[in-house]
Structure formats: C-alpha cells, structure tokens
Amino acid sequence: MEARLNILGNDLAMKVVGHLVAVDKVLAGSTLPRETQELVKIRASQINGCAACVDMHTKDAAHAGESQVRLNLVATWREATVFTEAERAALELVEQGTRIADAAGGVSDEAWANAAEHYDEDQLAALVAVIALINAFNRINVITQQPAGDYQPGQWG
C-alpha cells in the first residue's frame, strides 16, 4: 500500500503532527501508567483499523517489557484474565470513547464511574486525553492510508 499523503514531506501535516506529538509527551509524563496508555492506544487503533498505530504501539509496548500474551489479548480483553481491574476499566472507557457514534448516550455513566474507582482526577484527565489523541492519530493515518509493518521501537521518540 502506498500512502495518499506523505505526512513527513508535507510542512503543514508535520506541524500538526508535531503538536500532537507534543501532547503525547505531556501525557507520557503523567501519572497514568505507561502500560495503560499503550493498551488504550492499541485498543483504539484496533477498533479504528489503524494498522500503522497498531504496529507502532504493540512494538513499543513489547520493547518496554509488555508480555506477548497481553498484547495478543487486547482485542479480547473481556474474556482474558491477564488485565487488572484498572486496565479493564480503561479498556472499557476507550472502547466507548472511540465508538461514540454507536451509542446515543456516548460514554456511559457506569464506564466513567468504573474508571473513576481506579484513577484519580489527573489520571482520568490523562486517560481522556490519550483516548482523544490516539483517535486523532488513527484518523490521520487511516484517511491517508499510512502503511504499516516497518516501524522500529522508539523510532518516533
């Protein structure tokens, strides 16, 4: 597959992506566990069909020490026993936050309350921002058909 737009070769696209990367750096410094952030990014990317982001975040997570079993089971987290209750709450929130159009009420009060049981206010703010950010990246990559498969862990910082 060939990309519709060379993001790295377009000044405007790179400015936009640069700002998104800056947001990601802020989130990386938050108290929301990095493992949770990666699981959220992987799950949203799976839902959105963003191969480039699935490639990147599974490789980065594995490089950071995440187990292959957990990476293999992200898409089926409800049936898997390898995720903590906090991670399960984050995965439910990312699914509902990514599939907003699928439910007239958006994110349920139950999903929010469950997440709030496991994360403090700053972590919830980071979780919401991670969900929004990865959805933005997914849309850029899917719309422009960015190819996947050759990402190297840490390639983008």
Compact description:
InterPro entries: AhpD-like, AhpD_core, CMD-like. The protein has 157 residues and is mostly helical. It is 63% helix and 0% strand.
- Tell me about the largest β-sheet: none
* CATH topology type: AhpD-like
Order of helices and strands: HHHHHHH
| Count of separate DSSP helical elements | 7
Mean pLDDT, as a whole number?
95
Quick one: CATH superfamily?
A: AhpD-like
Q: Quick one: overall form? A: globular
Q: What number of domains?
A: 1
What is the first-to-last residue Cα distance? Answer: 25 Å
CATH architecture: Up-down Bundle
Number of strand elements: 0
Strand content: under 5%
Protein name: Alkyl hydroperoxide reductase AhpD
GO molecular function: peroxiredoxin activity
Domain Carboxymuconolactone decarboxylase-like: 26-95
Task: Write the topology of this structure.
Layout lengths: L10 H18 L5 H15 L2 H13 L4 H6 L11 H14 L10 H10 L2 H23 L14
Helix pairs in contact: 1-7, 2-3, 2-5, 2-7, 5-6, 5-7
Protein architecture, described:
This protein is mainly α. It has a single domain, classed as AhpD-like, CATH 1.20.1290.10. Helix content is 63%, strand content 0%. The protein contains seven helices and no strands. It is globular, with a radius of gyration of 15 Å. The model has no long low-confidence stretch (mean pLDDT 95). Residues 26-95 form the Carboxymuconolactone decarboxylase-like domain. This is Alkyl hydroperoxide reductase AhpD. GO terms for molecular function: peroxiredoxin activity. Pfam families: CMD (PF02627).
